[in-house]
Amino acid sequence: MRAEELKGHLDAVLLAALEDGPRHGYAVIESLRQSTGGRLDLPTGTIYPALRRLEQAGLITGSWSVVGGRRRREYKLTAAGTRALSGRRADWLDFSATVSAALEGRPCPSPV
Amino acid sequence: MSEPRLISSYLAALADQLPASIVEELADGLTETHRSYLQQGLAPDLAAESAVAEFGEPQEIVAEFARVNPARRAARRLLGIGPLVGACWAAALITDRASAWPVPFAARVLIGVALITIIGLLAASALSSRYRLAARAGVAGCVGIAALDAVLITAVMFTSAPMTWVVVGAMLASTARIAFAARSLVPALAR
């Protein structure tokens, strides 16, 4: 899956990567790699500005810590980020169910 | 373990264009990526090449950081609300026959030149893919537009311009823009 195809969904994917607890940038990238089986083909360096954008939007907070003598920035979900993730997840499930039904020529399941 | 030259030069290219705190975070990620390739059994140079290739072109990363720069976002918003504030002043100038206001010709020219310069700075910030240009032009544009609004308000208050509702409306629009520019400067200067 290329970066262009991920546009519009990257924020939700990054929020989901932080759902289990705080992570630094590289750990977020590793989490994405594992959860998608390495199918996301995007320059990993561009994850960092995306994390800053989410931080500016108040959906995550970043703080510095020192690990192995290196300063490292760790991110965690805020309450607003948790709500945003929940909303986007519901929207995506609804969207994908609708499009899947249309592509497969079967009736769309009723929203729960 | 010393850092491979390829990684050092990659980080140096980023450091030329990005603030130290951002480069520090990127360096941590790149080092971890390199280490991960080493653990997979790649030779150090090949591991460095793979890590750099996975990270992406420095210009692409710089452009993404420029895009999320708070000063650039403020510049875009100021350009968006600019026509509205400008329309308020235009209405005041037309309905109150501003040409008759006792404002020296040189001052009118100066205000015009300042406005064009500020719009240029805001546009440069809003469109640039260079982080430092986006940040500096955005901050200068925010300061400039707030200063220009303050000058306009002060000029109306200290000249014998008629204080009609249209003029008061334009002054309120400028006051709101000063407040917005000042609030935008806080995150823009924090980075």
Comma- or semicolon-separated keywords:
heterodimer, A: 112 residues, alpha+beta, three-stranded antiparallel β-sheet, 5 helices, 3 strands, 53% helix, elongated, B: 191 residues, mainly alpha, 8 helices, 82% helix
Radius of gyration of chain B using CA atoms only: 24 Å
Number of beta strands of chain A = 3
Give the percentage of residues in beta strands of chain B.
under 5%
Distance between the termini of chain B: 31 Å
Gross geometry of chain B: rod-shaped
User: How large, in whole angstroms, is the Cα Rg of chain A?
Assistant: 16 Å
Structural class of chain B: mainly alpha
Assembly type of the chains comes to: heterodimer
| Counted beta strands of chain B | 0
Number of helices of chain A: 5
Largest interface: A-B, 19 and 25 residues
Strand-and-helix sequence of chain B, N→C? HHHHHHHH
Low-confidence stretches of chain A: none
Shape estimate of chain A: elongated
Query: Which structural category do the helix and sheet elements of chain A fall into?
Result: alpha+beta
Order of helices and strands of chain A: HHEHHEEH
Poorly predicted runs of chain B are: none
Tell me, rounded to a whole number, the average pLDDT of chain A. 88
Largest sheet of chain A: 3 strands, antiparallel
**Strand percent estimate of chain A:** 15-25%
